[in-house]
Amino acid sequence: MTKFLYFIDSISTWVGKAFAWMILILCLAVTYEVMVRYVFRAPTTWAFDISYISYGALFLMAGAYALVRNGHVRADVFYRFWKPRTQATMDLILYVIFFLPGVAALIYSGWKYAEFSVRFKEVSIFSPAGIPIYPLKVLIPLTGVFLLLQGIAEIIRCLICIRNGQWPVRLHDVEETESIILREKELHRNDPQPLSSGKGAGQ
Fold first, then answer.
1. Domain count across the chain
2. CA distances from 60 to 5, 16, 66, 149, 151 (A)
3. Cβ pair 95, 158 in contact under 8 A
4. Relative to the CA of 100, which of 1, 47, 64, 149 has its CA 20 to 30 Å away?
């Protein structure tokens, strides 16, 4: 089961990091537009389209990665003080009641938007450049699929935690500073003695 969860985590992580390059494209496009607009007095006709398309693609496709990293907004004022079983029970309830129906609606509605957009080769109406936007709309149902896949993995984690009383280990690639501080605080609480006592290793 752990290998299966790691496999789903790795997919979400790879997709999130791949689309993170959209940040670079966005920055380069905006920088170029600012330069030609204010230095050469020759604004582009495509800057706005590129900015919202690149940001939209990043926002959509990073959803599953944010889920695997527990990066979505959560009102955890009380959550962090609960026991793992209580946390998992609450998460499981919310996944079933809100997450799964929401993602199902996203896939269903997104498929209609994408199918319509691809059929007519939809282009942007905000500039004369006619930038194609149907590739962006194709990402809507695709985002739902990746979210659903990662959501299934999170539901399995909840069930494992409810059974074992501890959250299963995640596939880590980065760690938030807050998590590091809390872990070090917990270690210091359990072992208040300093790591180095000044004595030699053989004493």
1. 1
2. 22, 9, 11, 15, 15
3. yes
4. 1
Q: How far apart are CA 31 and CA 13, in angstroms?
A: 28
What single-letter amino acid sits at 188? Answer: H
Residue 5: exposed, middle, or buried by beta-carbon count in 10 A (0-12, 13-18, 19+)? buried
Give me 184's structure tokens: 């070090």
C-alpha 12/C-alpha 151 separation (Å) is 11
- Provide the pLDDT for residue 196: 46
Q: Are 171 and 13 in contact (CB under 8 A)?
A: yes
Residue with tokens 């270690």: 187
Residue 120 falls inside a structural domain: yes
Task: Write down the pLDDT at residue 9.
Answer: 93
Residue 177 lies in a domain: no
Query: Would 83 be classed as within a structural domain?
Result: yes
For residue 187, the one-letter residue type is L
Strand-pair partners of 132: 123
Q: Is the pTM of this model over 0.85?
A: no
pLDDT of residue 151: 96
Q: What is the DSSP letter of 170?
A: P
Domain coverage including residue 23: 2-72+79-169
